[in-house]
Every structure is written in C-alpha cells, then in structure tokens.
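Let us walk through a complete example step by step. Step one is to write down the protein sequence. Step two is to encode the small molecule, magnesium ion, as a SMILES string so that its atoms and bonds are unambiguous. Step three, shown after the inputs, is the structure prediction itself.
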Amino acid sequence: MNWTNTPENLERLKRVRCFVLDMDGTFYLGNNLIEGSLRFYEEIYRMGKSILFLTNNSSHNSDFYVQKLTRMGCPATLENIYSSGMATAQYLNRNLPGKTVGLLGNQFLRDEFADYGIKVVDEDPDVLVAGFDTSLDYKKLCVFCDWVREGKPYIATHPDFNCPTETGFVPDLGSFMALIEASTGRKADLIIGKPYGEIVRGMLEMTGLPPEELAICGDRLYTDVATGVNHGILSICVLSGETHPEDLETSTVQPDLVFDRLENILDLL
Ligand SMILES: [Mg+2]
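Step three: the predicted structure of the complex.
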C-alpha cells in the first residue's frame, strides 16, 4: 500500500475529542474484539477524550450493543451507543410528530420506536420506514410494497447492502430496497444512516461537539469514511475489516487517515 498519512491530517487527529467508532470490522469482528481495541477504549478515556459507537444496523437496539460490548470486557454504557434506528426515531419525532408508521423491522426496532413514543400500525400508515428486518417474510414484504406503490413517504434507516456475520455476508437493507425498487419503481425518499446527514445531526447533538473535534473511524469506505468526507469530519479507515489496501487505490471515497487497526492511532495522539 502506498498510503501516507499527511502531517496536516495527523495534526487534526491530535485535536479530536470524541472518536466515533463503527463496531463490526472496526472494534470487533463477530464476537471477538480486534487486537488492541480494549486498550484503545481505555487509553482514549484516560486521555480525557470519549468514544461513541455509531452503527447503521437497525436490527438491534442500544441495550443489545451494551450487553455485547460488556460480554467482551468493554465498559460501554447506553450513552456510548447511537444507531440508525435511534436517529430515525428522532427524525420522525422532530419532522413528522404524531404520524403513524408502517414498519419493515424486527422486534428490536419496534421496541426502539415504542421507546420514542412512535406508533407503529398494520393498516394505512402515514409514513413508511424500512429497517434491517431480520424477521422479514413474504407477506410483510408484499404489504410494504403496496404502501410504497400508494406513494406514502418512504424512509430507510441505512443503505448497507450486506451485513457481516461470523459465517460471511447476509443481505442487509440496501438489498431489500433494491428489491422494493424493482417491484414498485420507487427508491426511498430519505436515508437516515451513514453516510447521510440525519445520523450525523443526531451524533453532533449527542456529543455536543463541533465536527472538527470528532473523528469517524470505520472499516467501510462507502458508509463510515464517506460520512466523514461528506460532513467535514476527520475520516479514518481501519484495515481490520472490509477494506483491503488495494481498494484505497481505486476508491472514489478517500479517507483522511489510514491505520491497520484502532490501536495504532494511540501512538499519534
Ligand atoms: Mg464495519
């Protein structure tokens, strides 16, 4: 790899007060921490900086991630987690208060929406939300496509085509949306998650910091790194997950900094 981290971006790195981390492929792989992740977490807090885990996966809620991180020895709490499901619920409450929602989502997302006081209905919803529905069945899909065909506002929690698991990729919401588009001729009107603006707005609100005091770290160029590039936030690509060094040579999305894994950032702070 012919990648060089420039002195200018390494200077920006020193000013970062909160590291916004992707989880899978960045902090852990499946159920195992990536080497040095826990040291990174502890050292960042020891320096008086903080960490926010930012995930596009709307098939789990914050409790799930806290439990998962705790099992791996990481002392994260609910304040450390922000997901596309939460960002979508906040968007609905801010922009479409009181509207009923037709949801393509599993029980975790239903519970998350209930926590935000959002009413999910099975008949004639005002707004449609598509999430990563791991309990999807054909009937649900047909009903959702009917609603899309009726022209109801259609929001998606995130754009990822695949979700990494221990045994390889499984189709994620981006793939469902491609199917819905093939059937109905419509794309989502709005996508909330990385690399788009709504999840960034929520994240800025949650951290209370300006973009120049954040860094977004992830293993995926078209979501994690693109979020930084699109919103003036220092973008860090880690090579512990999906991106291979040769991808950097051809990608139109170029990160500000590249490291093999999170732990390597510590030497430069
Ligand atoms: Mg990832």
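Step four is interpretation. The chain has a mean pLDDT of 95.
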